[in-house]
Amino acid sequence: MSPMRTTLRRATTVAALAAAGVLTAAGAAFAHVTVHPESYAKGATDGVLTFRVPNEEDTAATTKVQVFLPTDHPILGVLVSPQDGWTAQVTTTKLKTPVKTDDGTITDAVSQITWTGGRIRHGQYQDFNVAFGQLPENADQLTFKTLQTYSDGNVVRWIEEAQKGQDEPENPAPVLQLTAKGTAEGAGSTAAPAGTEEKPSATTTKVAATSDSTARGLGIAGLVVGVLGLAAAVFAIARGRSGASASSSGE
């Protein structure tokens, strides 16, 4: 095999592997339960959090979703948006450390929301919207451990917390980053924040393949990597032919 063909084959292989790796990562990220937007400012008021739950099983539907809210840094004034086909049960917990606000001292906060009665089938996801009155000011992030129950009895526990400098765990819990006051709220949002035109309705169960901008972004990145790899191969071949021609002319 000629050196040019070898170069092309190697470059194409590297590009294909790089693109496949990025696309695989995109698929994995999409399959996770996530919270949107990905960030809010500390102490933000009157906002909406959307918990996005995709169905990963081919032969079973999601029938129950449990989201656990932190009580060490509680979210105040939680309200659940009605979802057609689903029933929400809200659990409150007495706080170990009451929170003082302009409206008085808060001693209880929502610690768990459980949705049942609906079904998320293969290839679909469901958005669950939760409004809040105020986010905590004394935390950098909020972790929402989540349990996803399937019709076959299988339970996926999205409870693992990512550690700095380590790979993402297999079943990461949804995390909301809390940024310094004055920064833009809702940075990185892929779902509808409060005040936007998109509203929760009976159509919130949607086709998964069209939903997650993060996955789309990673997919596009993978294609770009592939194109750049092929371009590098073509350039290498052209350069090699040019050198060969120059050598022939000089003989």
Automatic annotation (TrEMBL):
Residue ranges of every copy of the YncI copper-binding domain listed in the record: 32-178
Keywords: Membrane, Signal, Transmembrane, Transmembrane helix
Taxonomic superkingdom: Bacteria
Region (Disordered): 183-210
Position of the signal peptide: 1-31
Pfam families found in the cross-reference section: DUF1775
Polar residues composition bias: residue spans: 201-210
Transmembrane intervals: 218-238
Protein name: YcnI family protein
Lineage, opening ranks: Bacteria, Bacillati, Actinomycetota, Actinomycetes, Kitasatosporales
